[in-house]
Amino acid sequence: xxxxxxxxLEWARAQFAMTALFHFFFVPFTLGMSFLVAxxxxxxxxTGKKEWKEITQFWxxxxxxxxxLGLATGIIHEFEFGTNWSTYSWVVGDLFGAPxxxxxxxxxFMEATFAAISFFGWKRxxxxxxxxxxxxxAIGSNLSALWxxxxxxxxxxxxxxxxxxxxxxxxxxxxxxxxxxTQPVAQIKFLHTITASYTLSSLFVLGISSLYLLRKKHVDxxxxxxxxxxxxxxxxxxxxxxxxxxxxxxxxNTQPTKIAAAEGLYVGEKGASIVAFGIPKxxxxxxxxxxxxxxxxxxxxxxxxxxxxxxxxxxxxxxxKDLIEGNPEYGIWPLKKLAQIGAEAREDLRKYxxxxxxxxVEAMKAAKEDFYKVVWSDPKTGLxxxxxxxxxxxxxxxxxxxxxxxxxxxxxxxxxxxxxxxxFWFIIIFVAAWLKIIKNAYENATLLQKLAxxxxxxxxxxxxxxxxxxxxxxxxxxxxxxxxxPESVTPIALQNVQATFFMFLTAFVILGIAELKxxxxxxKSGPKGAH
Amino acid sequence: xFKNILFFYIDGFKNLSDTGxxxxxxxxxxxxxxxxxxxxxxxxxxxxxxxxxxxxxxxVEQLTKVTTNQHKKEE
Lengths: 531, 75
Hints:
The complex is a heterodimer. By secondary structure, chain A is mainly alpha-helical. In chain A, 66% of the residues lie in helices and 7% in strands.
């Protein structure tokens, strides 16, 4: 594709996905468990009862194992940005790098400082200082996630409110840091991610506690742990669903290709349905004439996509076909038109830099004026779209397969639906557990305990599928509408990426086994063996 | 104050549990692999050897390849 080696692209993507998924194995556990440990310790400090100290220290040990093994696994992403994704780093580094730098400086040092007091300070600082450190460690860990998701929110929905494409430097540059950190997409992503993480860690604590109850071991410890986990998990899982709905609303209005792929919506509809269950076909959008033929079978919830995505049960939701061929009735431009404007912006960029080399000031001025020419404006909101804003679409000027403009439907559909389905399962588990706990009947609820144990790995699957929905669903863009993924990579030799891919794979497998082995050993020893 | 902080860390490391000791060994091996082996041998910083202007030319060429190719075809 345009001289870029597709294999290199695929290997670079596979390597990044593997690193992200491995890193994300640790992240949600850290985010949620840090707060659970803070809750347990708060109860200990309030009541002064030693059993709560034992509970705190046991779960803190499991938190520590995860924290230590996950530490620095995210750094590998930074290496990959430089080596495999250098065009991406060059073009968006100013905007993307700023929140990452803040994360590194503020949150990382905050975590490192308070982690030391929280782990080493049990006998060395006062109860209140120790408790404050545990809480600040939890807040610091969660703030790290905020900065990362601000960076990711920009990739999902780059806005003129916080940046613009500078023709002089050929880069996206930041104009308003406050607007970048308060962007709604990032805030919603952050809330959805942290509540999902709290659900994950709560189910972990509930599951391990249930295991002890099934084996009639550490019964008092398990009952107390399960009560806190069920309460936190119930609140977190409900909030995850509520914020997930708000997230879906944002996505419908900012990334129409993602939501259309996630719901298998090929042809736009008024009063569009949500597919509750279904098997989608992988079809070229131009060949599809009705949404029914795009599925082997499906069970729908009528009008729900319009209601949840547009807050109106009869609203129009564009399908993949509309986003390729355009739909004048709803003001949707065809991809060919967007690609033409994007190509003109790229031509302006080229002319500008050629004129700059030749010292032709007039030609530079003309190219710059054309580059920032307004091609669409909204009289109601005053929003203006310039050629520069559509520069990414220029990539599709010479692409024959226009279906490349949207992500693969079955992958995004399954990832999204499995995530949502598991999310509802977690609510059921926590509601049932909480009802038993308030009736003081959880100790004998063996079926529920077994279900909780079996469900322990499921939140990891849900959060990974959620991440895949977000990232694969954004394709073919690294920065939605601005920078296509095939143009974001570095034109380097394929062997370099392949070699590091297998090195990372080996390292991740070893680390993963080490994590699980140490975790299982501590869980098997129980609270007495943790310290 | 700095002395107190230093002793706090020294004391903390001296009194590590068995699990803590294992974790620190893993952390040190991991950091050596990431920052020494991977960074030095597999992810060297090559851009510092290229001037900023040349780097910009490279990326402008990358971004305008679509229209440049078309330009050449038309010529």
